[in-house]
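A common beginner's mistake is to predict each chain separately and then try to dock the pieces by hand. The better habit, illustrated here, is to supply every component at once so that their relative placement is modeled jointly.
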Amino acid sequence: MTRFVTHPIARFLARRLVYSAVVLIGVLVVVFALVHLVPGDPVRIALGTRYSPQAYDALRSASGLDKPIVEQFFSYIGSALTGDLGVSFRNGDPVTEILLERLPATISLAVAGIVIALLIALPAGIWSALREGRISDAIIRIASQFGVSVPDFWMGILLIALFATTLGWLPTSGYQPLLDNPGGWLRHIVLPALTVGLVAGAIMTRYVRSAVLEVASMGYVRTARSKGLPPRVVTFRHTVRNALIPVLTITGIQLATILGGVIVVEVVFAWPGLGRLVYNAVAARDYPVIQGAVLLIAALFLLINLIVDVLYAVVDPRIRLS
Amino acid sequence: MDLTRRFKHRGQRVEAFGVMAMRRLARLVAVVVALSGLTACSTGERVDLGDDSSGNLIAAIAGEPDQLDPHKTSAYFSFEVLENVFDTLVEPDANLEMKPALAESWDVSGDQLTWTFHLRRGVTFHDGSPFTADDVVYSYRRIIDEQLTNVDKFSAVTDVSAPNADTVVIRLKQPTPNLLTNIGGFKGMAIVSRRNVESGEITTHPIGTGPFSFSGQKSGDSITLKANPSYWGTPPKISGVTFRFISEPTTALSALQAGEVDWTDSIPPQRVAQLRDDDSINLAVTPSNDYWYLALNEARKPWSDVRVRQAIAYGIDRDAIVAATSYGTAAANQLAIPEGNPWYTAYDRYGYDIEKAKGLLRDAGVTDTDLDMLVTSEYPETVTAAQVIADNLAPLGITVNIRTVDFATWLDEQNTGNFDMLMMGWLGNIDPDDFYYAQHHTDGTSNAQKFSDPEVDRLLDGGRVETNHQARAGLYSRAATIIADKVSYIYLYNPSVIQAWSTGLSGFESRRDGAIRFRTTTLDRGETS
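With all components supplied together, the output reads:
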């Protein structure tokens, strides 16, 4: 047992766990403060514009919003620490349930999107770096500039117009769970994942290119080349492998960003992800849902961060998890 | 029905990105072709929800209901669904006249203070339990005792009782000519099941007596209803309805054109002109009783001066606002109630007249002034109209500062009176009391502009109790004229209800109150797989 705890990886994980818990509690406090400071009243928005003062008071006390803010804060934090994130103001559903229901669609889109992005960014970025200054480099750089600049809703609408309306190959919108209907899941995810993946891929191509270029100018690459190693070996064993660290970082950031919700893509493709949930919750000032969702997104960020850190050590054995 | 999120059309304009973007896109075609090769080709694929819903009518609505308790929600998206699940004692027909529903008939006492409703027999809730007079009493008492959103509809009610299982008696403190509209105008006054309420399930699994029963919801995606074979009216001919939430109108329209959905009201208004000529879908543009208006804050100077308010009424170009906000699908109107409505009053005092506006401002001694205009991104038409209005008022020396906020903030600002002028809509109106009392009576709950006129108060109080239809119409006509003359509101236009459906769908009637009823709809998908 003691040996397990003293194992460097276990110590690393334990420390990260404690650190994550502290960050999450900090996030909770900040989000709670923020949502209550922002103007807008959840009771008023629930009632619309046509209501009596009595109805306002009744709903306010039923939601517990008439209690002092400090009391609301401690009762929220207290139950959050036991895993109870409260219930939605809008429909009384437990927040945990709402979040879990949205998670599969969000993870599907994020993973599929990042896979497409990597499929684009790795070959394009490496090729572009190796051909620096030539025509193919220029084309890739211009194309990735376009990918970064094209608004994703426009890309989404174009993809729908082409593949759903005109060609009729793919559905315009909607989501199907992977486990219920794998074929339907695949058909529905192609267009939103392409939209997400093209934008993320364009951003990542530029990172891959500059990372490879930087490593290629290192002394050891010159050494490898001068001792007569074939260009292929130099490229993949010495250059690309060492360029993977910054690529991992940007991949982690992109993945976490997509997991946090790609609202525009979700709206265009009617995708039931976290982004729309948060958007609607903010519009309705549904405090428990906003708080829960931000907490979940923060936790996903921390998790991905952790995975990226572990992968650093895998990619580069010189990096120690300590 | 309350102010809601019906008018969801973001005026997103697609920029031409030129050849390079197209070339880039073309390069991707190869990737997608490869991917789609993995899957079967699917034309017009429909959402398979894993139950018997594959034959359902699929309707795309522009957003997700916040909750499904008809007494508590105020969102139009909720009512689009609930219209098909719940019943009221009486309900509006296509001309918005109140007709029997759960009540087969009713008698009114000579003094107009006691209404006796005779209920339909043999009606059951979706869970099989019988519908009785106790359910009516329970539903109404719930709204009154818990002070729910629509408690105002019962402001004249002193007692609701059930002398026997088939009879409900409503007692009033004053004659109420619009009682039927109050209790049946929309599904916010639905008869609910006590067991459903007490179990707390009504917000997510509502049980009603309507033509369709609630079957399931997928958060962020869809709600499915199935036909109720024991519905008291003619049971629906379709197996059920699946409401999908597609807020992007371009996507909803594409889904309709691709055959994935059968019906939608999520339609970009700029596409209406083109869709009128499209034989592959049915399009309905139905003038509605809704209206959009401007209100000036009369608690602030110089807007407290009626001449200044009139100057603005003359200074805005209504036709330009209609064109910019609705692409010509709305009808300009200087009063609330549209032509063709039994309560319509003709009125055309305020033509677009800059000289007259300048003269009024001169008389009032107002020269260069700023105007803080409060609009919300929730209703993009308010933002668009504000830009036109800013342009219109500039020659009068009025600098319009457009303040665009989200709806929650907008409601706060309106409530605290922190605005010079605002623009908003009022939806789902049937009786003139709905149109005027809350907004223009001194004690009105939605009188944010602080309008107060003893004559208008007297007329609106009188309209609430006048049982002679002719006399009542006269009262409201006078009230409406004063409201416009003294500029409590500057009415702008009546929008249209815009809906489209596939050629295989028949028996659907587009209604001016925006209620979506699929009970008489039939569906023939032809060769669609």
